Input
Amino acid sequence: MNLDGLNGFSIEVPSWAYGNSGTRFKVFTTKGVPRNPYEKISDAAEVNRLTGLAPRVSLHIPWDLVDDWSDLRRHAEDNGVSIGAVNSNLFQEDDYRLGSLCNPDPAVRRKAVDHHLQCLDVMRQTGSTDIKVWLPDGLNYPGQDSLRGRQERLAESLRAIYDALDPDQRMLLEYKLFEPAFYSMDIPDWGTSLLHCLALGEQATVVLDTGHHAPGTNIEFIVMQLLRQNRLGAFDFNSRFYADDDLIVGSADPFQLFRIMSEIVAAGAHRPESKVNFMLDQCHNIEEKIPGQIRSVLNVEQALAKALLIDQEALATAQRDGDVLGANAILMDAYETDVRAALADRREERGLPRDPVAAFLASGYAQKAATDRAGGTQASWGA
Ligand code: RM4
Ligand code: MN
Output
């Protein structure tokens, strides 16, 4: 089984996955949950140590604010990881009731732009190159504000942020169908995100969060189209049954994850040169967080491994010959191949545990964290 395509492939994990999080009903707490960004990074490093697949951690500002960024960077590097994308936060300030980058009040827009300039500074100090912008702006009621006016304000605000990027920095622009606004989000879909990116310039790319579409959306089509335009900057991987469920990636629909990775492989975008950043954006409500992240990372690896097994030559021939069933069978053969033993062998060859979840449970890390991290306030989504 040739899995060479996995060489160099990596996944980025989110700092907020290690803190407590939940639905709007209840946030369950667990002993040993990190109390600060340092401890979140230690937990993320554990995922990397056991899987060899997750060498970067995304930060969320202001949740992950620290006094000394070079010290946090050093802590990450000492633990074998680096700082990945820096996420801005436009959804927790009273000033943003009517929006942030699209707010009718220019002073609020300025504040939101300035927050991004602060994030760019964090990136310079931590060695991060991606700023991820997720815009919660939108309208709850028809007529509440001008749909078009808000797009003009958005274009202007994004321009101010984009113009402040260093040449090696990228903007990742996320979209979301609904929530927190219900009538109309200001970046509801990939088309709107792409239009703004095209207007801004080559350093602006789209981030596709797999939980941010209408049910039934063909996500692999979007992946293909963004790759065609060279504007797929990143994924926010997670699973959903109904809305933005933020569940373990590959848990709700592993076949969809495979179809997405098939488009990635067809374009060669799994290789590091493609610059597609394969990030996770998940929250673990009832399950343990570190094993939840390990499982997620392994699910992405497994989907990629299966996609790498597609016989591209035979597929192209079947497609050219109009062999409908044959072409579909080639894809399904790859999907239905059990790659678990081959992946375990590959891990072993690299000095990694064959079963990273079992290795974590046996390591005593969780018990030690529960003792060491007594006292203080546990980190949680939103703080
Ligand atoms: C949003 C969005 C962002 C993430 C936050 C935590 O729904 O998906 O990517 O930064 O949640
Ligand atoms: Mn996201």
Summary: Residues 16, 87, 134, 174, 209, 236, 244, 281 surround beta-L-rhamnopyranose (ligand 1) (CB under 6 Å). The longest helix spans residues 106-126. Residues 187 and 313 are 39 Å apart (CA to CA).
